[in-house]
Specification:
Elements: H1 2-6, H2 8-33, H3 41-59, H4 62-86, H5 91-114, E1 119-121, E2 130-131, H6 142-145, E3 149-150, H7 151-169, H8 171-181, H9 183-188, H10 193-217, E4 222-224, H11 231-242, H12 249-265, H13 273-298
Antiparallel strand pairs: 1-4, 2-3
Helix pairs in contact: 2-7, 2-10, 2-11, 2-12, 3-4, 3-5, 3-10, 3-11, 4-5, 4-10, 7-8, 8-10, 11-12, 11-13, 12-13
């Protein structure tokens, strides 16, 4: 176990896995700060995975795969925005429907587009490029852990800082927070409530789409049915744990990714494969409960659903 936790390869894989969770959680965070509890992260993510692989295959370019994944994420959350923000549908029911649609429709799209079931990969599917960091490459251990990650890994770190600064120090970010906290007061102050929420949902959908791209085109450029495996729900748990502290999504993503990667690695030690799959969800439940208990002890300012 000690060897696993100190292995540079394990921590490199952890950062790759954390990137996907971080991007999806950032998307869900924007939604919840606007006052919309978006549970459709899983559905948007699986659509983004399929679109990223399909576009990368047809164009033989990873850049178009990124655009396809982002477009799919925006499209799914756009449906949610139309139904819930403008047509006043129940957000939980619409989100659940989109999740079920994503898990059910992508196998059909896979068979229709590529005449295959289960999964798809091809030499024409271009993976995301991996970037070396000058200076870091010469440092043992760090050269394997930090350098050589995908372009979206470094973009996710930057986007975390952008979201934190934007929400806390810009006029539009403060307006978004006002809409999420007190929409009546925000509307009376001249903030366009529905438009602000719709834009937040679309921006969140783009981030969720990037998370799907990282999952599909990161380590292995392929699509398989149900490849998200509940990551959207783990990201949603991260959002609830983070509360009003967006920066905590970064360490949370690394923490959950450690459980995922170590759980899979332990299978080679003879442990049941089911244990490796259940570890991230058990950790999410335990941390969510502990965060809720801690917030009650501290009073206001803890976890906000």
């Amino acid at each position: 176990m000690i060897d696993l936790l100190t292995s540079a390869v394990i921590w490199g894989r952890t950062l790759d896995a954390a990137t996907c969770l971080l991007l999806v959680a950032l998307g869900g965070y924007l939604c919840i700060r606007s006052g919309v509890f978006n549970i459709a992260l899983e559905g948007a993510m699986i659509f983004a995975c399929f679109a990223a692989v399909a576009c990368s295959h047809w164009a033989s370019a990873w850049g178009l795969g990124v655009l396809g994944g982002v477009a799919a994420g925006v499209l799914v959350t756009g449906v949610l925005a139309l139904a819930c923000v403008y047509l006043h549908a129940d957000v939980l029911l619409v989100g659940l429907a989109l999740n079920l649609l994503g898990l059910g429709a992508t196998p059909l799209l896979l068979q229709w587009a590529f005449d295959i079931r289960g999964g798809f990969t091809s030499p024409d599917v271009r993976p995301l490029p991996h970037l070396g960091l000058p200076g870091i490459d010469a440092i043992p251990w760090l050269d394997t852990v930090i350098s050589g990650r995908t372009v979206l890994t470094y973009a996710a770190w930057l986007l975390t800082a952008v979201v934190v600064i934007w929400l806390g120090h810009t006029r539009s970010g403060l307006a978004l927070r006002a809409v999420g906290l007190r929409e009546e007061i925000a509307g009376a102050s001249g903030v366009p409530v529905r438009r602000t929420r719709a834009v937040a949902l679309l921006a969140g959908g783009a981030l969720v789409g990037l998370g799907g791209v990282q999952l599909a085109l990161g380590d292995v450029a392929q699509f398989s049915e149900n490849m998200t495996s509940g990551r959207g729900f783990i990201a949603l748990a991260m959002v609830l744990i983070a509360g009003r502290r967006a920066w905590t999504l970064l360490p949370l993503s690394v923490g959950f990714a450690v459980f995922d990667v170590v759980g899979l690695s332990l299978q080679s030690e003879g442990l049941p494969s089911e244990l490796g799959h259940v570890l991230p969800y058990a950790a999410a439940l335990a941390i969510l409960l502990l965060a809720r208990l801690w917030s009650r002890r501290r009073g206001p300012g803890g976890v906000h659903a």
